[in-house]
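Records of this kind hold a single protein each, on a pair of labelled lines. Below, a sample record shows both lines together.
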Amino acid sequence: MQTKHWKRRASVSLSTLAGLAMTATFAAGAANAQSSASATVTAQRNALAQLMLEENRPGAACIILKRAGGAATADANSLYLLARCSDASGNTQEAIAYYRQLIALLPNATRPRAELAALYVKAGQPGLAGPLFADAARVGPGDEASPIMQNLAERLGANDPAALIAGTASKPWAIELFAGLIHDSNINGGPTSDIVPAVVGTTPIQFRLVPEAMPKSSWGANTSLNGSYAHRLSPRFSLLFQGGVSRTDYFEDANFTNDSLTLATALIYRNQQHGVSASLQPSIRYIRQDSRLQEANTGVVGRVSKAVIHKVNLTFSTGYFDRRVQVDRRRDAHGLHAGLGVNTQLIPDWNLGAEYVLQREHANEDVFSRRTNGPSVYAVWKARHDLEFIANYRYTNVTYDKAMAFFPDVRDDRQQTVGLTALWDVSRWAGRNLVVRAQYMHARNRSNVAFNDNQRDIFMMGVQTRF
């Protein structure tokens, strides 16, 4: 009976916040004989912590739960969430302690044993994991234990991306190195307001977010290295190999330090006589935060461009992508995108362009599936031989397929991004191909779900060299 009770409770906790609230309320009333009001508070607290986990803010989730008692709690869902947020925050030993307390509370439960075993393997203690896996298989029914074992490799995380190996410098090569300072006004993606209206059942409520969930600003250091190599196959066909690594270290909060690796190969066709060019480019990108893999993205993009009149090109692009979100597999998604753009250099010293993009994304859970569409424009102005300005603007409408728990309306976002870049060539004073780069980006996401309504300002300045 206890096994079935935990199975129902755990599966609901991992699915929706609404289910979590109802289960937590039931558990508090049945196990602890608490009042209805107290059970509702526990359910709302757990729901808010679960929401923080879904938004990849495990630190805030742990703070919410610990302020309400932490390890002293006898609520199974609270302990389970504490174990998850501790693990996601990198506090493996703390997560192990919570799982052990949960197993003592529910001795016949399968899931906490299997997940604790996974933590032991992750911590390099496989000897402690074996007995727990055996207990999980013995205690729980086969239909519950089997999916846990199948997902074990995913819980342990994928390997880090291989290091990018640069070749020897030669004429087909282009290598660019940048190093500079960055200031980010919202490194954690915090909302603009600490009050989040929601609905539990039919009752309107308001979540008040803890200070740790609000926007955090920080200075940091950014470095990037990009390289490319072109290999000509024939007068019209060539191959282009590209790779890049980037890293941002934040001074105020190292937990948000991130890095990425991107690799791509393109088959390019050019017919100058007819003004036609085309390319087919597969790519892969890894993104990490705090030395933990966050996402692995793969995809392929096809592009065809045609000169319609002198110095005016039309471009059509389409592609497929697959995204694996290591920290939350429910967000794993795949989809298609297509775009139509125009580019012109009719005005001397100016390069102007615009594009409209449509994208359809299917996630493992419908609450994360979405449709996006919107235009973007850009302008490049060569003010002097040593000074260049770049401006761009993008507007995106994002509509999700299914409403989130506690929020009755389907999430609908309006995103606006403005970017400005200045490139000043100081080679005549400081050396060949040395450029000072200054960049500013403003991003505003207006959402009907207050938790996702946010804005961000990023300023970056440094030097880059190309050879």
